[in-house]
Amino acid sequence: MIQIIETGPFNTVQDLGRPGYRDIGVTASGAMDPLAVKIGNILVGNDEDAAAIEVQTFPFKLRFEAGGIFAVTGADGNPTLDGRELRSWCTHVAEPGQLLEIRQPPRFARAYIVFRGGLDVPVLMGSRSTSLRGGFGGNAGRPLSKGDQIEFGMPSDALPPPPSGLAVIEPAVALRHVFPAPTDGVLSIRAIVAGEHELFASEGEAFWGQIWRISSSSDRTGYRLSGEPLRPMATVEMRSHGVVPGVVQVPPGGEPIIQMSDANTAGGYPKIAGVVECDLWRLGQARIGSRLQFVRSTHAEARAVEQAVTRYVEDIRRTSQMVKRALKAMA
Description:
The chain has helices spanning 34-44, 171-174, 201-209, 280-284, 299-330; strands at 2-6, 12-14, 52-55, 60-64, 68-74, 80-81, 84-85, 91-94, 99-102, 111-115, 149-150, 186-193, 212-214, 222-226, 241-242, 247-249, 257-259, 266-267, 271-275, 291-296. A hairpin with a 7-residue loop joins β16 and β17 (257-259). The strands form four sheets. It has a seven-stranded mixed beta barrel with strand order 12-19-16-17-14-13-20. It is of the alpha+beta class. The model has no long low-confidence stretch (mean pLDDT 93). 18% of the residues lie in helices and 24% in strands.
């Protein structure tokens, strides 16, 4: 069990989401950086979709009421356990009464705390994720509050981690050949043209050519972008249509909205582009005020990036299994 000692708004329990219910108006929710949750769960010996804590307002502190194995992934910056700095992207063992603190990270937006056994909150529509807009899931459908206590789930792995912990090279480093670092502070985001792209002059040149800034009106539902407004060549009336994370819509004001983890299930704004799925975790780690530029991509390139990420995750999974076999042999 853990107890929340200090938290801020919008820190929630999330897993990989609840797809399959958009037809009845239920958004998928789930982690803004699903890659961080997958890797953290592999490290601690969980199924990759076990529930974790998503921290996006800092500082965040919790106390281990019972001992546990955990990892902190996602945002850069070292967590501390009773004031002792720990490595991120690495397994650690906590004793009862120890205090884990996550401080404001230097660059990225969200940290994930993953516990062996996951978090024992109710499963609703196949997921433990918090839907803040719906007021259900996670920890009673709301952000975490000081004093909240949450039990660990039942672990499927009884082996302790290696004495020095099991660690990985974080995705931003290991996959830098497919996810280049920001240039002059500008994050490049791959996207594919969407259904109403041709409504905008010069094939959306103003969309692809300029640098956008994530505005303060952004949240888990969508990132609103500040920049030179986009104007369609003609006024059109559109029926509402299905919307998923990554869709970039252009409302009447002309400043695009990128649908994120709590994306609307339907909407009628023109769709100018769609962010490739494997780039969404990078957006999930982009802070308010971050600058980004869309790079016109193709389905083939999106597939190649997806394959590179899959190989990276599978390599971590194989390494974890090899370590488990070695520990069993030594037991």
